[in-house]
Design goal:
The structure holds 2 protein chains of 2 kinds. Chain A is α/β, with parallel strands linked by helices. Helix content of chain A is 41%, strand content 19%. In chain A, strand 6, helix 4 and strand 7 (125-130) form a beta-alpha-beta unit. By secondary structure, chain B is mainly alpha-helical. The chains are: A alpha/beta, B mainly alpha. The interface between A and B is large, with 46 and 46 residues.
């Protein structure tokens, strides 16, 4: 199983990696990217990813010596990522794993976004999971979506 | 015949009687009544409850108690169906009173139009006596008061009425809905600023109500009418009546949410129509299919007929004879359109400015935006009157980039409200009564008008249209309408293409819009996009006509595949002027355009004007090749590479003569950021950051325009105004009471409000500017909320605060399968515990974890939020939930006044940005202190108390001393670690001012300025001079002015300029900066030096400089003086002049000051 994980927060990234390892008994190859651009670049340059696990908020650029935070944080980087996939006709299945229950300006919640993504990207958007280090529910939710996808594949 | 047995039946009490009978208090009776009754039962039982003593306050509202109890809850909240049923019954119960007010509306409108202010007040006084004071009448009073040049003496002035009612909520509503938005020039900005505040910070239950009451009905917004009715049913009978009209109108023409589906609006409208004589109700009833009293007066009929026949002079003549106040708005529109052709209207007798503004709007001429804003303002002020409500529909219909559907809806609503039944009304008359209406028209309107409408809208017969005697170009337009309605889009487009070039500006504008619509319907998307882009670039004023979303949605497949330069331009036009819906497409189209045209980077397209068209390529470079749009382009290595590319593009534009102030500023800003290699790590430590460069860049136009307006108003005299007299004392008082560090100062000012104090135009404009600035600072793309949200609230803070507990095994995460918490780890390896004890400890830790999560959630989700709604509304007590937000940026007029006092003399826009940014950082610093106090105080105390509680619970559950001791140690370690973690979290809430930390060499400012102008400079530095980032920015401006002056005045090319800068230290320790360049100015040395004598004399003379500082051209030296003297507070001298070798020098002698640090000589 080849997975692209687009996630800028280290602890969350490690949690997701550990879960993927447990699900696929280490038989999983995960490429981790920390920004919208690097995630997108990785997906465009390689056509053998079977699943994308995508964070919703992240920087546009990879952090570097000149810019340790990767430019202005993007509240909706995940949405841009999905829109670019659609425009480029990339249909790798995507699961959004986010720590936000509410997004920018406190107006849009995860349910609204999920509804929007399902309507806009029915071909490859597979669902959203609310991640919290205080709550293990995300593990079972992500596991269930990933296993279902794995069965389909 | 047998005798009928008569039995005496005991009538069973109805459930309503039971509900009322059981209730001992008014509140209980009303709650039970609304609970047990269905909407139809409410309608049927109203006469019963109207006699019940418990209901008298809800039925007579302010008729009995006056304005004192306005909006005070009298009836409990209930669902929408019940509210509507109650309100319909209530207005019918009071129908005689309401009808008397409605009967006065025409006269009232006439007196308003004729500006008989005293008469208007007289009528309103009379209406208020009959119906009680209403916000409907207060709106009119406010409008008159705010626009009248005379002092209003009425005892029922807004101020007096507001003084009668101490309720802050009522005052807030009245203040902002009655004459507040009176400044035409800033109408949209001020309105949007308040709407933004309400959208962001008002409690949900008040949000829609406030937006509806303050700004009037919008057909575009989906309101929660349940909330609106629940508040409005405690207002006045007239307000409730008008809410019912608005509610029905929204249902007929707006976007209704699904909850309204079950309400039988049609029958509600019929019932109101049968009980009231009111044109909007007649129109609504006809729309829903019931009407029997059609009518059109003689003069209106004649205007319609003459207009149809193209006899525009006759229309103007009739209008001149009658006067505008006697015409319905739909007829007034025909008069204005006739005047566009004939130009024969008398200005004063025909609505004067309104008709002129409408003409500017129809023709989309240069005054369009100004005129539309003016119309929006006047229609907003007087929207209580149907005529002005129709005018507001006109404004919405003509609004830039309005969606086609919304345009149609507003047009329909205006027709529905029309008191004259013209042929055009056919489209808003329901099927059931359409035939009757056609019969009426046949008998009452001339054969030409009727025949024309019948042919165009019913028969769709273009041949028959040929026989009707109307103006040829209008005939062509109507023929295209027939083609469109018959689906013959290509034929329609051909006609419209011709008409778009018509000399009749009205037809030309309308045809351009219809042409794009016809092409979209035809599906020829290449043509659509080409025409759309070409019309928009060539006739910029027409761009706002188009429904760009419709265009881009329709052409999506073509846009995805095309290699045309029109594609990124079309997307960019939408993104710049409407919304962000197509931003992703724009980024993608940039990439596709490059690759499909064999280019890797934008500079590959330099000098390709011939291929792509000069105008289009310049547009592409200026508006598409920006860092924001290029940021996803994968050919760039990173942010630096993207910005370098932007610099190249800007330099190309500047060299080709297409630069402007924004491009020059942008170049300076990018160079500055690159040169300084900002101390990003410091930004990283503090997660509270705002990038204020947005206030200088391409998108700063809205701030600049408002600032210019403020500066213009500042020239007038305001010292006699009430607010100017009141504010200074208050500012002084707050200053006296503020602590030394001044953090309390702005906060204190923001809390003081004067609800009934009139705000003068200058101050009102500054408030709007401050609010606009504040919104960008708090909520902009690079604003505070974005950083707070992504770098703190987004899981980072909760994880950090859980860490010490997780580490000690004292934290139980929520289970993945249920809502409970999973077993914590602490007890797992503790073999001294019995199974029962382990279970008990687990329960204790789970309980603790739940409480601790609540604590974190309060901090993360409620405290660390931004709040901008003003304190005045907070005081209503309706806002307790939202008010937990600790990043409080609510502002008051008093605070904005104090802020103005911080500006230097003759402030430039950049001065304003500096002062305003400092103000918001001061506000932020205050907020940060509060947040830190909360985390170190309340949060920590509560967390420690929870840990202590856990310790004590576990101690009482466990018998093993070893285990108790282990657990106690764990708790203590966790407390220690939590304290450290709290220190780390608090460090995130620090405003790190890079300026205070980093120091830069003066050479850096020279480097930025020379790179921004792309010139070579020979630098000789004999002293080490450093300055802070903020001061460095000022010095960049000084060198930029010196170098630009050399470039523009020397009459030499860049290569021959020979620019040199020497930096040295004088004998008395002062800094000397000398700038030299070659020049080719004709004349002998003496005369050339005489020519610049004025600059030497005026330099440093504030009185001479004040007037020229704001101007462009020839003011560079004075700007240098202002920067050095005022901004850098550095006393200095200047020498300048031409020298023998065709050279020119400027020498600055800068005294010692805190702005510069001179170190060792080099």
């Amino acid at each position: 199983m080849k997975v692209l994980l687009v996630e800028d927060q280290q602890e969350k990234s490690e949690d997701v990696l550990s879960l993927l390892g447990a699900i696929f008994k280490e038989n999983v190859d995960v490429s981790v990217k920390q920004s919208l651009r690097s995630g997108l670049k990785e997906l465009i340059s390689s056509d053998d990813f079977q699943i994308v696990i995508l964070d919703m908020s992240m920087p546009n650029y990879d952090p570097g010596p000149e810019d340790p935070v990767g430019g202005t944080p993007e509240s909706f980087a995940g949405r841009e990522f999905l829109a670019q996939m659609e425009l480029r006709d990339i249909t790798t299945p995507v699961v959004v794993v986010t720590q936000y229950s509410t997004f920018a300006k406190g107006q849009i919640d995860l349910e609204d976004l999920d509804f929007f993504f399902r309507r806009s990207y029915p071909g490859f958007y597979k669902g959203s999971v609310y991640y919290s280090s205080a709550d293990k529910t995300w593990k079972s939710q992500l596991e269930s979506i990933v296993k279902e996808l794995f069965d389909e594949l | 015949m047998c005798a009928r047995k008569v039995t005496k039946k005991t009538k069973k009490p109805s459930k309503i009687s039971k509900a009322l009978g059981r209730s001992r208090t008014s509140g209980a009776a009303k709650a039970r009544y609304l609970n047990v009754c269905s909407p139809s039962e409410i309608r049927n039982s109203f006469s019963l409850v109207s006699r019940h003593r418990f209901f008298s306050d809800a039925i007579y509202l302010n008729l009995s108690k006056g304005v004192r109890d306005f909006y005070k809850p009298k009836l409990p909240p209930c669902d929408l169906g019940k509210s509507v049923a109650w309100c319909v019954s209530l207005v019918i119960f009071h129908k005689n009173r309401i009808q008397k007010a409605l009967n006065e509306e025409d006269n009232l409108a006439k007196q308003v139009m004729l500006r008989n202010d005293e008469k208007v007040f007289e009528i309103l006084d009379d209406i208020d006596k009959k119906c009680g004071i209403s916000t409907w009448s207060l709106r009119l009073r406010g409008a008159i008061e705010s626009t009248s040049s005379k002092d209003i003496t009425s005892s029922r002035s807004i101020k007096n009425i507001m003084d009668l009612n101490g309720d802050a909520f009522f005052k807030y509503v009245v203040r902002y809905s009655s004459g507040y938005f009176k400044e035409e020039d800033i109408f949209f900005t001020s309105k949007n600023a308040l709407a933004f505040e309400i959208e962001k910070s008002a409690p949900k239950s008040l949000r829609d109500f406030l937006l509806y009451k303050i700004f009037g009905l919008s057909l575009i917004r989906e309101y929660d009418f349940r909330d609106i009715f629940n508040i409005e049913k405690d207002s006045s009978i007239l307000d409730i009546f008008h809410l019912l009209i608005d509610f029905s109108s929204h249902f007929a023409c707006g976007r209704m949410s699904e909850v309204q589906d079950y309400i039988d609006i049609k029958n509600i409208v019929y019932e109101l129509y049968e009980n009231f004589d009111y044109p909007p109700l007649k129109g609504l009833s006809a729309f829903f299919g019931k009407r029997d009293d059609w009518g059109i007066d003689k003069i209106s009929r004649e205007v319609v007929d003459c207009y149809t026949k193209g006899e525009y002079s006759n229309v103007c003549r009739m209008a001149n004879n009658v006067g505008w106040s006697d015409f319905d708005f739909s007829i007034f529109e025909l008069i204005v359109k006739s005047d566009l052709r004939a130009g024969e209207l008398n200005y004063e007798s025909t609505g004067g400015k309104i008709s002129q503004d409408m003409k500017n709007t129809y023709t989309r001429n240069e005054q369009f935006e100004e005129s539309l804003q003016s119309l929006a303002c006047v229609s907003h002020l007087y929207r209580s009157l149907t005529w002005f409500h129709q005018l507001s529909c006109f404004v919405e219909r003509e609004f830039p980039f309005v969606r086609s559907e919304d345009r149609e809806n507003y047009d329909n609503l205006s027709l529905i409200y029309s008191s004259v039944d013209t042929p055009k009304k056919i489209k808003v008359v329901g099927e059931k009564v359409r035939q009757e209406f056609l019969e009426y028209l046949k008998c009452n309107v001339s054969s030409v008008s009727f025949h024309m409408y019948d042919t165009v809208y019913n028969k769709l017969d273009d041949i028959e249209l040929g026989g009707i005697e109307i103006d040829e170009e209008r005939k062509k337009k109507y023929r295209s309408v027939i083609f469109l309605n018959k689906g013959m889009y290509k034929q329609a487009a051909e006609l419209l293409s011709d008409l778009s070039l018509s000399s009749d500006s009205l037809i030309s504008v309308e045809a351009s819009r219809m042409l794009i619509e016809a092409l979209v319907l035809d599906g020829d998307y290449q043509e659509v996009i080409e025409r759309f882009v070409e019309i928009s670039l060539e006739r910029e004023n027409l761009l706002s006509l188009f429904d760009t979303k419709d265009v881009l949605d329709g052409a999506s497949e073509y846009l995805k595949k095309s290699s045309s330069i029109n594609v990124p331009i079309a997307y960019s036009l939408h993104s710049r002027f409407t919304d962000s819906e197509f931003d992703s497409n724009l980024k993608y189209s940039f990439e596709m355009f490059l690759s499909r045209n064999g280019a890797v980077f934008p500079n590959d397209l330099f000098w390709c004007e011939e291929k792509y068209g000069r105008e289009k390529l310049n547009y592409f470079f200026k508006w598409v090749c920006t860092p924001e749009i290029m940021k996803l382009y994968l050919e760039f290595d990173g942010v630096r590479h993207t910005e370098e590319c932007r610099l190249q593009v800007c330099n190309y534009l500047m060299e080709r003569g297409f630069d402007d102030e924004f491009i020059r500023n942008e170049v300076k800003e990018i160079n500055r950021a690159h040169s300084m290699k900002r101390a990003e790590k410091k930004v990283e430590n503090s997660r509270v950051y705002v990038d204020t460069s947005v206030f200088y860049g391409r998108d700063s136009q809205k701030f600049r325009s408002l600032f210019e307006k403020y500066m213009e108003l500042s020239k007038k005299e305001y010292s006699f105004e009430e607010d100017e007299r009141e504010f200074p004392d208050w500012v002084m008082r707050v200053k006296e009471f503020s602590e030394e560090d001044g953090l309390e100062y702005w906060k204190g000012l923001s809390m003081i409000h004067f609800p009934s104090l009139a705000i003068n135009s200058k101050n009102a404009t500054f408030i709007s500017l401050a609010k606009l600035f504040r919104s960008e600072f708090a909520y902009g793309y690079r604003g505070l909320n974005n950083h707070l949200s992504t770098r703190i609230r987004h899981g980072v803070l909760p994880t950090a605060l859980r860490k010490p507990l997780v580490h000690e095994g004292l934290y139980a995460p929520k289970s993945s399968t249920s809502d409970s918490f999973t077993a914590p780890k602490w007890a797992d390896n503790n073999y001294a515990l019995t199974d029962f004890e382990k279970e008990q400890v687990d329960i204790n830790i789970k309980d603790f974890s739940e409480s601790y999560e609540n604590l974190i959630s309060t901090l993360n989700d409620e405290k660390l939020q931004i709040y901008i709604l003003e304190e005045q509304l907070v005081k209503t007590g309706t806002d307790s939930q939202q008010n937990m937000a600790m990043f409080d940026y609510s502002i008051s007029p008093l605070e904005c006044y104090a802020l103005q006092q911080e500006l230097p003399i003759s402030p430039s826009y950049n001065d304003f940005v500096k002062v305003a940014a400092q103000w918001l950082w001061d506000r932020t610093d205050y907020n940060l202190v509060q947040v830190q106090k909360y985390i170190r105080g309340t949060f920590k105390d509560q967390a420690v108390a929870l840990l202590e509680g856990l310790k004590s619970d576990v101690m009482s559950s466990v018998s093993s001393e070893v285990s108790v001791s282990d657990f106690s140690n764990s708790i203590d370690r966790a407390k220690g670690a939590l304290a450290s973690q709290i220190d780390i979290v608090c460090s995130w809430f620090a405003h790190v001012d890079i300026d205070d930390i980093e120091e830069f060499d003066i050479e850096t400012s020279i480097d930025i300025a020379k790179r921004s102008l792309n010139v070579e400079v020979e630098l000789s530095s004999f002293v080490k001079c450093t300055l802070s980032e903020r001061n460095l920015t000022y010095m960049v401006d000084v060198f930029f002015i010196l170098f630009e002056n050399a470039l523009s005045k020397s009459r030499l090319s860049k290569d021959a300029l020979g620019l040199k800068v020497d930096i040295s230290q004088g004998d008395s320790g002062h800094l000397i900066i000398e700038c030299y360049n070659k020049c080719s100015v004709a004349g002998d040395l003496k005369s050339k030096n005489n020519d610049i004598e004025f600059y030497r004399d005026a330099y440093g003379n504030e009185d001479m400089i004040r007037g020229v500082l704001q101007k462009e051209g020839g003011t560079g030296f004075f700007k240098i003086w202002k920067i050095l003297d005022k901004d850098l507070e550095t006393p200095h001298d200047i020498e300048m002049g031409f020298v023998e070798d065709d050279g020119f020098f400027v020498r600055l002698f800068l005294d010692e000051s805190k702005s510069f640090k001179l170190k060792e000589s080099v």
